[in-house]
Amino acid sequence: MQKNRGAVPKQAVTTVFLLSVLALSACGHTEAAPPTIPMNVVIQTIRDYGRGHQLSPAPANQAKPEEADQMYCAHIHSLLLQEDFGQLEKIAAQNRVDKGRLIGGVFKTGSFYTGTGATSCLETGTEAEHLSLIALLTKWNAAYPDSVTPRLALATLYIDYAWVARGRGTADTVSRKGWRLFRGRTAQAKDILIRAASLKDKDPQWYVVMQMVAQNEGWEQADARELLDQALGFDPDFYPFYRFHSIYLLPQWYGNPGDIQALADEAASKHPEPQGSMLYFRIMSTLACYCGQNPEQLKGADWQKLQLGFANIEKAYGLSDLNANRFSEMAFVFGDKAVAREAFGRITQRDDAAWVDVQSFQYARNWASAP
User: Fold this and answer.
1) What predicted TM-score, i.e. pTM, was given to this entire model?
2) Which domain-ending residue is among 183, 217, 251?
3) Residue 3 binned pLDDT confidence (cut-offs 50, 70, 90)
4) Domain limits at 199?
5) Is the pLDDT confidence value at 215 over 50?
6) Same domain for 313 and 232
7) Is there a domain that residue 194 lies in?
8) Which of 217, 247, 278 lies at the terminal end of a domain, its last residue?
9) What pLDDT score was predicted for residue 293?
10) Angle at 148 between CA 143 and CA 152, to 5 degrees
11) For the CA atoms of the chain, what is the radius of gyration?
12) 101 strand-pairing partners
């Protein structure tokens, strides 16, 4: 069926898709993985996805955002729980046109799919919550069978659900069942993406979720790089494409020391200021976690450019707590006590993305505040 999708009536494809999802969300679900999609089919779909896409420039002179990522995400999630699918459709369509931002420069599109297709904006993220969200998104898909939005939300959710099965520990801590579910749920996300590729509306989240698939499945570097290049051809200013590729390039995944630095240098060279330094900060902030080998790799960065990028982001989009945490960690790594003292003073609360534990955060903050 995968090789002959074009010959299958559209309604039949939609019906098969919805039935397969419903089967997974039913009681006693087996979570059988969909048929394997050949890599050449995946790559060709990636190449075709943005073909003919007309890039709409972001509206000029946008006001500095006043809404925080977490609040926006929670609002979107509440609309989903209310089953206000019509309003969600309008918001997603508007995000694709306006390219709106939140405090700190986060794209509303990304936060929208966190609110509809992930549980990271919630306090928990239990098995029951995931199954409940699958049922809701399946209902949304049925109500809007020609819309790309609920499909991408569901694909995003399956990636989130895959990590529930795997856990966040190292590979040797994952059980055989955990690996099976991780791979099966990732395959479900990829299958949804391939089926959604033929829909009329195109969304940058399609590439983002495919980048998540690439990381989960361990794609060859050449394939992951082509995915990035095709995504940037779709929208060169959508910085999450760089961010997700930089995660793939972490040494604990599929990259080597220096790969993220090279990507940041490349991206900055392709964009004039202030975009260049902002991109540099965002990409290098992948290493702004006081954990593992990240601090040593971060030391090779251009500290002046990181400071410029941080300042430019704040000037354009305001200060987010996440960026403040990342910048304080950078200042600590570079031993810049004056900058670190000011950065720590602007943090509302510790962020796990920059400081993996309270002890490291308190140690660095005490160092910065000491004479």
Assistant:
1) 0.89
2) 217
3) very low
4) 1-31+62-217
5) yes
6) yes
7) yes
8) 217
9) 86
10) 105
11) 21
12) 107
